[in-house]
């Protein structure tokens, strides 16, 4: 049975800082050069000293996988090798890629067999914070560690003193620090998903983050968890959100002072370190009020402040070249989310599902009839209606979308996203241009919900 690991039993202090700081970064790739990426088993010290290493599945032997860095306008070339004991693919979450590079088995790509290889290649239209993960047996493969950051730098980045990355992971571990079994259990599938008992930052328990008074940091956050939603509060600091899901937006303070990140979502923050030398400030995750905990702590060194007042430089990012939706001529369709415990189960639901449905439909095996059909270049306006008692981060492949309304009220920033979070009984209206033909996946990014019915297909015809 999994147990909750007390923070006192976990790796702390300078060793934890060193472990988290060792996230490997692939140097900016030049044109014509391919990056080698291999998925396979590995044993890593997730929990730290005093605990056994954990058997994981990893990219290039690391959890998270190497941080892939490119510049906007480059072409990414990734030579992928599958060293897992089962088939897999890679989905480039949030990136606008050709349909045959999107990594969804039985829809846009043939699965890569064990021992097989696949060459991914696509132009990088947008700058921002993205990530990569498998889309085969997703709930198991991500929970075993298969994920990594994909960063596309702006041609003219904003001025900061440091560019930091926190890849947030959530693990359900046994007292022996092994990944707990029980995948596909109906309790997870029909409720909130597989929420773990151990949270990592860049693959380690991150007890503290050394900072310097007066410095300005760009902090990139990625939620790679199967199901855990984060609500991060930076005590004693005033973070400014400059991008969500990789897409720039007007700098602003997060609502209620908390940065909310559902599975699959990302946020770029600017943090001015306004504390004094020697001070310490907690970063608290309080999304689940009864399960609030300290994620890490900003620890100020004793050196003199880098500057006495905040850096006098703009923090707004240039927008990406996304096609603006034509709302006047849009195709409109509601998508009703239903099912789960206390909800209306899809017809034919058995002990292993399906437990969820979109517009009353759940996939039958590998076959999925399109839920939405559009012509290339058309604007679509979709209203998600969550008729369940559970949270659902709805992710659309291929097309970033504007969030127009939340619970019927216009959103203050009309932000671009690729994953929108809906609470119980909430609604969200989105709009996007179907600019690339093909069959594209729409699904809940709580993976246990996705795998038991909450997925569908958007078909875009040429």
What can you tell me about this protein's structure?
Helices cover 5% and strands 40% of the residues. The protein contains four helices and 32 strands. The strands form six sheets. Strands 21, 22, 24, 26, 27, 28 and 30 form a seven-stranded mixed β-sheet that branches. A six-stranded mixed β-sheet has the order 11-10-13-18-15-16, with no helix packed on it. A hairpin with a 2-residue loop joins strand 26 (401-406) and strand 27 (409-410). It is globular and about 65 Å long. The model is unreliable at 1-22 (pLDDT under 50).
Helix-strand layout with pairing:
Elements: H1 13-21, E1 25-26, E2 35-44, E3 54-59, E4 65-71, E5 75-82, E6 91-93, E7 117-123, E8 128-133, H2 138-143, E9 148-153, E10 162-171, H3 186-190, E11 198-201, E12 209-211, E13 216-223, E14 230-234, E15 240-244, E16 247-252, E17 259-261, E18 266-272, E19 280-285, E20 293-300, E21 331-339, E22 356-358, E23 372-375, E24 379-386, E25 392-396, E26 401-406, E27 409-410, E28 416-417, E29 419-422, E30 427-433, E31 438-444, H4 447-450, E32 455-461
Parallel strand pairs: 1-4, 2-5, 4-9, 10-13, 12-20, 21-24, 23-32
Antiparallel strand pairs: 2-3, 5-7, 6-8, 8-9, 10-11, 13-18, 14-17, 14-19, 15-16, 15-18, 19-20, 21-22, 24-30, 25-29, 25-31, 26-27, 26-28, 26-30, 31-32
Decide which structural class fits the backbone.
Answer: mainly beta
Number of self-contained structural domains: 3
Mean pLDDT score: 92
Radius of gyration, rounded? 21 Å
Low-confidence stretches: 1-22
Task: Sum up the structure in keywords.
single chain; disordered N terminus; seven-stranded mixed beta sheet; 462 residues; mainly beta; globular; Immunoglobulin-like
